[in-house]
Amino acid sequence: MFTKGKGIIMSNVKSRQIKSEEVPARPPRQGFSPGRTVLFSAVWALVAGVAASLCATLVMGLLRLLAGIPTPVEMFGDYVLKHINVDQFIRLLMTYGPNAKTAPLGQALLAMIAIGTALGWLYALLVWIKLPARGYRPARREWLVALAFALLMTLAGVILFWKELPQNFLGWPFDMARILSIVGMLCDFGVYGVVLCLGYRALLPKYPAPNSDRVVARRRQLLARSGVVALGVGAGLGTFGSIQKFLDNYTAYDGIKTSFPNHTDYPITPNNDHYVVTQNPVDPSVDINLWRLEVGGLVNKLGTYTYEELQKLPSTARAITLECIANGPGGHLMGNAVWHGVPLRTLIEQQGGTQPGAKYIAFYCADGYNTSLPLQEVLEADPLLAWNMNGVDLPKRHGYPLRVLIPGRYGEENPKWLTRIEFVGDFVQGLYSSQGWYNGVLRTTSRFNQPFTGNVFQVGQQVPMVGIAFAGNRGIQRVEVSDDGGTTWKEAKLDPAFSKDSWVFWRMDWRPTRAGTYTLAVRATDGTGEVQTGRKQNTVPNGSTGYHIVTVTAK
């Protein structure tokens, strides 16, 4: 019995040994070598960085289109423009030519995506996961690093773009616009951090789960990587679509001159024919239900007005001519319209007047534009806060729902899409002032509408001369014409002015007395008695001076 039992036991032992030999034990798991770990980590961190950057960019585009929140790229552009001088600004315009707005923004966007991609390497270094990784769920440290990325990038944006934050293209008020811009950046960079964290972990090589089928594990890994790549591609396509939607509203009308059909000016420029200059690739599309005009700073009573409340204030209409600082002699970056709105003085009275320390007035707009001027000079010009242009609501391109009209100042100091007025003790830097552009009263100008260079007349023929003269709210006292290049002058007749703030039409009949070439010049004397200078000065940066000269021939 004992022998039999011993045989059975020995038989069982041998059987187990045979089975053990038939199914060899799984070898111990081996990690990647340091070099291989670095290589795989770098590659997949790069892919995760691209996917995260594209997802963040898509969120930026959607927030811009749906909520009017400016993208970090746009705020970066605004920041850069305020930190270069006028010469650098002009060189940029010449370098990029007709794409002076879209090309720099496009380059900034690509740079942002490149930086986001490179940050994937920094993330991989900070979380440093031994490869192969175990599981698809990020560890706490990975989440904390991703959160730190999002918070630090948002904080950097807030610090860098603090002055650019209070803008919103749907017209949210100043402080709310700043809050929304901060929330927008937090969303942008939060999405970046989440996608980077999940995507990097999903892409890394994995140990198979215990007792799992290796084929199934490989398929899961392939699906995870395909999902991250598909997310990145989808975000890229979505970004491209949002950019196309953005560009559908591109302000191609920037720099359009006032219409001049048959060398004739309309006394009152039609809205669609009025010159337009804008700093924006896409102008604000203000939601009137969100928009408010805020009055703050050194004023006795702070105030906030809806569109309807503002229109209930005592208002007036007045013809006011606008001229761009880039308008040269004989140029057509100038137009005259009848504007209807509330006088600034009336609004100040509604707020109980300003406090003694108020030396300057600052205007802030939905697109982030701002400008500042001496308060007393502004009040002397009797400005309007206009909501109506030539009998209709302000067109979008002219600043709907509200713009400032300050007679005697160049167009860039008549800001559009106004959201806030602030009375302050010190000058507030804006885009043009920070670059070094002139911000004083506009220069006296005059021009010929007819005749124009190249005209040919008969000796003794009566030639009607017609043109305009403008000196802002100083008015025009006299216009003179010379047919010998400025040696002698004859006085022209003036039509009645439309208002003290508008251009004036002048007229004169002239007869060439000899055959040959004539150099015609025109000059104006403003209401203070100061004669327009003949000294030629470029428009950049102080506004042009000099006579408008045309050359005609008599036979």
TrEMBL record:
<protein>
    <recommendedName>
        <fullName>Molybdopterin-binding oxidoreductase</fullName>
    </recommendedName>
</protein>
<feature type="transmembrane region" description="Helical">
    <location>
        <begin position="38"/>
        <end position="63"/>
    </location>
</feature>
<dbReference type="InterPro" id="IPR005066">
    <property type="entry name" value="MoCF_OxRdtse_dimer"/>
</dbReference>
<keyword id="KW-0812">Transmembrane</keyword>
<dbReference type="Pfam" id="PF00174">
    <property type="entry name" value="Oxidored_molyb"/>
</dbReference>
<dbReference type="InterPro" id="IPR036374">
    <property type="entry name" value="OxRdtase_Mopterin-bd_sf"/>
</dbReference>
<feature type="transmembrane region" description="Helical">
    <location>
        <begin position="182"/>
        <end position="201"/>
    </location>
</feature>
<dbReference type="Pfam" id="PF03404">
    <property type="entry name" value="Mo-co_dimer"/>
</dbReference>
<keyword id="KW-0472">Membrane</keyword>
<feature type="transmembrane region" description="Helical">
    <location>
        <begin position="143"/>
        <end position="162"/>
    </location>
</feature>
<feature type="domain" description="Moybdenum cofactor oxidoreductase dimerisation">
    <location>
        <begin position="458"/>
        <end position="534"/>
    </location>
</feature>
<dbReference type="InterPro" id="IPR014756">
    <property type="entry name" value="Ig_E-set"/>
</dbReference>
<keyword id="KW-1133">Transmembrane helix</keyword>
<feature type="domain" description="Oxidoreductase molybdopterin-binding">
    <location>
        <begin position="284"/>
        <end position="425"/>
    </location>
</feature>
<feature type="transmembrane region" description="Helical">
    <location>
        <begin position="108"/>
        <end position="131"/>
    </location>
</feature>
<feature type="transmembrane region" description="Helical">
    <location>
        <begin position="222"/>
        <end position="243"/>
    </location>
</feature>
<dbReference type="InterPro" id="IPR000572">
    <property type="entry name" value="OxRdtase_Mopterin-bd_dom"/>
</dbReference>
